[in-house]
Amino acid sequence: MGLLDKFRAYLNEEEPEDSEEQLSDQLDYKESDDDFLDEDSVLDKEGEKPPKKFTWGARLKAIISSLSGKKDSIDMSDEDVVEEMRQTKTVNAEVKAVQDFCEQLVDVSYHMEDLKKEYQVVTSYLTDIQRIEELPIDIAHDLIENAKRIEMLDKNRQTYLQSENLLTMEQYKTMVRLEDEVVDTIKTLNEMEQRDALLKHDMGHLEGEKESLKYRRRDCSVGIDRLRAVLGTVLILFLLTTMVVIWYGLSTRANVTIPALTIGAIVMVVFAACYAKYMDYKQEIKEADAKVKRAVSLLNKVKAKYINNRSTLDYIYEKYGVNSSKELEYMWAQYDTMNKDAMRYTQANNDFRVYCDQLVKTLERIGLRDPLVWPKQTNALIDRREMVEIKHSLNMRRQSIREKLATCEKISDNAKVAIRASVELNPALESFVKELLTPFKVNV
Fold this sequence. Notes:
mainly alpha
């Protein structure tokens, strides 16, 4: 079944039986047909304001609303009234169908205009490609060289832009704010870190010396205790030996002078040796105490210098957000690289624009319709395979537009045929169709 046959079947289809209230409203609408032709008189009759914009549905709604008070006077048992109302419903369905086809025709018309514009653009692209492919060798060579420069400059720009991630935004702001102080600060940090290492070494050395002196002093104290024990033992042995010698001399009446003198001499030598060693221990303890005091004093001075130096270091570290001079030096090197790359990017960007302008002017002299797209497609100017890919893509795109245009034209023709058929069946719809299509400049 064709579209026209469907439309006619839709117009001739039998409406379902209405309720008594609906038939009464429709009868009132039919009886006041003159009011239907004059919207202002109907709306003024109920004291309502007319709508700002004409729509078929709004007119029907206003008429039905204005005449709803008359439904009590309608005799719904009258067969003529019922038949007349069924005809009215058919007319309303016909108007709705015509309105739908008009809207469809307007939408398709606008869509076809967009497709035609797109088709012209694609065609101009293909024409430009054909002109580029037919260029003389010398002009094509200059064009390719210019495109190569543009590609190289674009790659350089992208490379220089990558240096933006070398530092975080906070680090970069810190470097910008303290740029004039960074070089001197790096030198100061190196010196202070060396001093910090030396002070740590001195503190460790003094701490070790202090502990060594304390250990030696403890050894001397232990040695004195041992000498005391030896002297006590010798004294006890001397007394016992002396008593034994005296007892032997008294009991045997023998001469014990020589053994007594020998024992006494031995005891005196032992006592003399122990005393000498005791005095050495005492002297060492005295010297160790003096050295410990000196070491403690020096250690306190070194600690004070270390604390002051460390406080300054921590302040500088916190100020620059680093943990060492090496890190600050690295940040400074990255910052310097970023600045140099920014300058190179600016220069490359300026050169990029100059060569792009030259390429556009060259293409304008050739007669291209849209030369501004080619600075973004320099790879197609350099590599013929890329140009073939673009050309193939444009041809596919143009073919797709043709198919869409053909489909839209078919839809438009069918809608026009349906509208004309409806107007032929009901000439009163002609003014309604003109009213709908005239603002959009669409002809049936």
